[in-house]
Amino acid sequence: MRSLKYEEVYLLAYEDVRVARGGIGGYMRFFNQERPHQALEYRTPMAVYMESVALKRAA
């Protein structure tokens, strides 16, 4: 994933694997729950997912 590399990994020098996992995990939460995506009409992946769940329940 390009965003992960350019917005997180390449910018930070992690001390060890444990710290890297924590940082990457935090970025993934941000990426999926807070960061709008142009391909999703500037919605977050979580918002798109929740919308699809609601539509399935309504059907």
From TrEMBL:
InterPro entries: Integrase_cat-core, RNaseH-like_sf. Residues 3-45 form the Integrase catalytic domain. Coiled coil: none annotated. One of its GO terms (biological process) is DNA integration. This is Putative transposase.
